[in-house]
Design goal:
Elements: H1 2-6, E1 13-17, H2 23-30, E2 36-41, H3 58-68, E3 79-84, H4 96-102, E4 106-111, H5 114-117, E5 130-134, H6 139-145, H7 150-162, H8 168-184, H9 188-197, H10 203-221, H11 227-235, H12 237-241, H13 265-271, E6 276-281, E7 292-300
Parallel strand pairs: 1-4, 1-5, 2-3, 3-4
Antiparallel strand pairs: 6-7
Helix pairs in contact: 11-13
Length: 305
């Protein structure tokens, strides 16, 4: 986001990603670079969904926002507007073209399940927006959270490239950290809890809460598909990963299940950011898309534990 702001010709930004990967927290922290920060959460404050009823031009939108909150100050060239949980008001992206052409205010849209809800947007301001997908923390970022210096982390990669063995101390430290990462996962709030309290207390409950939130999202947002079938696939991910070859097979989801009955379920979960899909390759060669088997894959949950 810092690099985005530094570009004098930057476009409005859309940050999408799965639930709880830290989108809103990161943007709020970044907003300290501005004199004024306007945060509109369409779930917590549904009345703001009406601000686009009279049009999408900045002056019109800002006037409608000001009627609802007269305390906010819109400072030209020093204001960041965040439309958060935009899946609840997907047409707000139509305004991005007009905010870009106007040029006075920076705009970021953020939300979950955007890949699923793009079909509902009347205009996605093609050519007037930049998209960024945010993921949970990887192992390097986990080590940052624990306070390791970049040169220490870089040494892991250097050992791998040069195939130089780690010292006993290095190996013991890194393998212990990796085991913690595999247990904790990469969801920022859970990592923060673990790092701050230096133990696993409450971690399992927090992980279960996120998983339950994902199930609730399926129930709330899955349209035109059998919600129970989507949940059935989602709940069977640990079963597949527990098998020897870990391959996803519809026939193992339920007794008598057939592929035609589950068309679109895996795609919905993937578009929603709830799963990661890993394809088998005929040959590990570039281009990868020319060598993958579309019907032979494994599915994983995001790194939430």
């Amino acid at each position: 986001m810092v690099d985005w702001k530094a570009n004098p010709d930057h476009l409005p930004l859309i940050i999408k990603g799965a639930r709880q990967v830290g989108k809103t927290s990161s943007i709020t922290h970044f907003a300290k670079n501005y004199k004024s920060f306007i945060l509109i959460n369409f779930i917590e404050e549904p009345q703001y969904k009406r601000i686009f009823e009279k049009g999408f031009k900045p002056d019109t939108v800002i006037r409608e926002i000001s009627f609802l909150n007269s305390d906010w100050e819109f400072i030209p060239h020093d204001t960041l507007i965040l439309f958060d949980e935009m899946q609840e008001c997907p047409d707000c992206t139509t305004s991005l073209k007009f905010f870009k052409l106007d040029g006075r205010f920076d705009v970021i849209c953020s939300g979950s399940l955007l890949g699923v809800h793009y079909k509902e947007i009347s205009s996605v301001s093609v050519g007037f927006k930049e998209d960024y997908e945010m993921h949970s923390l990887d192992f390097e970022e986990f080590l940052w959270a624990k306070g390791y210096k970049q040169e220490q982390i870089d040494s892991i990669y250097e050992h791998m490239v040069s195939q130089t063995p780690f010292s006993n101390i290095e190996y013991d430290v890194w393998i212990e950290n990796f085991r913690e990462y595999m247990t904790i996962g990469g969801m920022p709030a859970i990592v923060d809890k673990f790092v701050s309290q230096k133990n696993f207390s409450g971690v399992l409950a927090a992980q279960k809460k996120i998983l339950q939130d994902y199930e609730d999202d399926i129930t709330k947002y899955a349209e035109g598909l059998d919600k129970e079938k989507i949940k059935n696939v989602y709940n069977h991910i640990p079963v597949f990963l527990g098998k020897e070859n870990k391959k996803f097979q519809i026939t193992k989801v339920a007794t008598g299940a057939r592929s035609r009955e589950y068309v679109g379920t895996v795609e919905w979960l993937n578009d929603a950011g709830i799963i990661n899909r890993c394809y088998c390759l005929d040959q590990p060669e570039l281009p990868l898309k020319g060598n993958y088997k579309p019907n032979d894959f494994k599915i994983y949950c995001p790194k939430n534990g």
